[in-house]
Amino acid sequence: MKSVFESKKVNTLISPLKPVSQQIGMMFPELGWDLKRAGYKIDAISYLSIAMFIAMMVFIISAILLVAPLVIRGGIDLFIGILGSGVLGVLSFGYIMLIPRLKIVRTERQIDKHLEYMLKDMQIQLTAGIPLFDTFVNIANGDYGECSTICGKIVREVQSGKSIINVLDEFGLLSSSEYLRRVFWQIVNALKTGSNVTIALKAISNEIRAEKENKIRSYGQELGLWSLVYMIFVIVFPSMGATLLLILSSFMGGSLIQEFHFWIILLGVIFFQFIFISIIRNKRPDVG
Question: How far apart are CA 27 and CA 205, in angstroms?
């Protein structure tokens, strides 16, 4: 299924922006390579034009729907309103430019999550005498997530008449995962030299296992520090702050602290807990 970036209608719409994109394309030298690794079949100039077009639309729509009514009512100054719309446009442009890199990182995590189990399966099959191509067919039909998807693409490329060495070399070059790249290139090297593939696969599998154990160990050590941060900002600061406000309010006749101050503290604690949970969830190693 094609993405919106590969639509012919979209490319026709952004064609007037391509001359400008060619001028500023030098500022993003790795964009073309990131697009290939992310699996987008679109050149860097067209993608940059789409990002500029979306940023312009966000600027215009926000200026018309959000800023204009506030300016007419006198709620904000015209310059501040235009500046706010411009900031929204720049943020949307930055987000669109980050999409390929984010997709690469997400795909890398999905590959590395199942790669160790896929390698063990390949070792067993190759040791049992199953041909390499049939091994890729079995992996493609297996339940190894993104690894099975990539192996399915390799099978289709080989069935179309391409050499398995060239296909593995190409997929290794474009792979989001460093380990999967090494797996493919080790297989290519073994096929060219006639050496044993299973030995190389076993070494990479052991290395992946060791790195996962190191990640788990580092994550466990970090949790101690994050627990201390949580206690300080969720337990110590709110309780001591509320107590201090009550004491100061008693000296000043009870006028210093009102009910909404406690609501502010409660909302602050809830907001911090959401941020804290997000940080811990992102730092948790995805080891399968």
Answer: 39
